[in-house]
Every structure is written in structure tokens, then in C-alpha cells.
Design brief:
Blueprint: H1 2-33, H2 58-74, H3 83-95, H4 104-112, H5 120-133, H6 138-147, H7 151-156, H8 176-191, H9 198-206
Helix pairs in contact: 2-3, 3-5, 5-9, 6-8
Length: 210
């Protein structure tokens, strides 16, 4: 009986060892062929890009120009160093952006700049851009010709009616007489059909006053 019992136990042990071995082999085989599913990240829908130039709306562009002029007008030291040249480059580059803007909002914002002194090169560029816009600009200029342009004083205050060395001795806020003279000449040139060519524009935007 003991021999039978021992034989049975030995058989059981061998059977268990075989089962464990087979399970291990099967497990390895399964691991070699198993490729866990890789979840692809949920694609992020691209956000719609803002149209080029959208941030440079006419009103914002005008505000940037006026704000820089106001800061510049109060700094009496810039004309004696490179600050003047840097400022003129900034002003001409920003002002030139109005060339491609011909909406009602753009023409209105551009016309309202007639009440500000834009610097020597800025004034020349403003005239050039006005001629390029032509008769479409006239209805927006005429109210300032008749009633002046008090916007600058209303927005910035009386301090900017004083001459500034940084602005060639001119005041940032033009007087009603200066606005009238400027617009009378400009409108007369527009009606006479004077033009400012691409070459003229490039020359004005490519250099600054020395």
C-alpha cells in the first residue's frame, strides 16, 4: 500500500510540474504575440487662426500711433539722439498700414488723424496716403475742415497744445487754423487729381528724417 501511495503522490507531483511548465510556456507564447491596444490621443481640432491683420483694426492702429506720439512729445531728449530716428520709423511703419485699409471705419480713423501733428516725415506720408485714397476720403475730411478737429485736446488735454522740441517745435494737437490750412490744401490736391505712386510711397516709408 505504501508503494502504491508513494507512486500516486509521485504521479501527482509530476503532473503538477508538467502543468506548471506548460502554463509557463503558454504564458510566454501569449506575451510574445500580445500587442496591447494603443489608444490614439483624441485629435485636437485646430483653432481657427485669426485673419492676418485682424488685430490691427483701424481704431487700434490709430490709438497706437497717437499713444506713441503723446509719449514722444513729452520726451524732450529724443531729438538729440537716435530716439528720433527710431520714433519716425515706428510712426511711418504704423501709418503706412492705412494704405490697404479702405473701409468706412478706416477712412474715418485716418481722417481723424488730421488733428495731430505726425512729425515731418509723418506729415508727408499722411499726405501721400490721402492722395492715394482720393475722393473716397473727402467726406471724412470735410467735417474737420468746417469745424476743426478738437479730438486731440479732448483726448489728451491742454498740455499737448504746447510746442514740443521732440516734434520739431510743433504742438501735438493742431489748432483749428492749422487743421483748416492743412485740409484746404489737401482736399484741393485730391480734387486736382494729384497722386502718390507706389514708388513715392516706398520712398517715404523707407527712410526717416536725418
Amino acid at each position: 500500500m505504501r508503494l502504491v501511495s508513494s507512486a500516486v503522490r509521485l504521479l501527482v507531483v509530476i503532473s503538477l510540474l508538467l502543468l506548471v511548465g506548460i502554463s509557463a510556456v503558454l504564458a510566454r507564447s501569449w506575451s510574445y504575440h500580445y500587442h496591447p491596444e494603443i489608444l490614439e490621443p483624441t485629435p485636437t481640432l485646430p483653432t481657427k487662426a485669426a485673419p492676418s491683420g485682424q488685430s490691427s483694426t483701424p481704431k487700434l492702429l490709430k490709438r497706437a500711433i497717437v499713444s506713441d506720439l503723446a509719449i514722444f512729445a513729452q520726451d524732450q531728449s529724443l531729438q538729440r539722439n537716435t530716439g528720433y530716428s527710431d520714433h519716425m520709423k515706428y510712426e511711418t511703419s504704423r501709418l503706412s498700414l492705412f494704405d490697404s485699409m479702405n473701409s468706412s471705419e478706416a477712412l474715418s480713423a485716418f481722417a481723424s488723424l488730421s488733428g495731430y501733428y505726425l512729425g515731418a516725415s509723418g506729415e508727408k506720408l499722411y499726405r501721400c496716403l490721402a492722395l492715394r485714397k482720393g475722393r473716397a476720403l473727402e467726406p471724412y475730411l470735410e467735417p474737420y475742415l468746417r469745424g476743426g478737429n478738437p479730438e486731440c485736446v479732448n483726448e489728451l488735454g491742454q498740455d499737448f497744445t504746447k510746442p514740443s522740441e521732440s516734434l520739431d517745435g510743433y504742438t501735438l494737437c493742431s489748432t483749428s487754423q492749422q487743421v483748416e490750412k492743412r485740409l484746404t490744401e489737401l482736399i484741393a490736391e485730391i480734387e486736382a487729381g494729384k497722386s502718390c505712386t507706389d514708388s513715392d510711397l516706398a520712398q517715404l516709408t523707407g527712410g526717416v528724417r536725418k
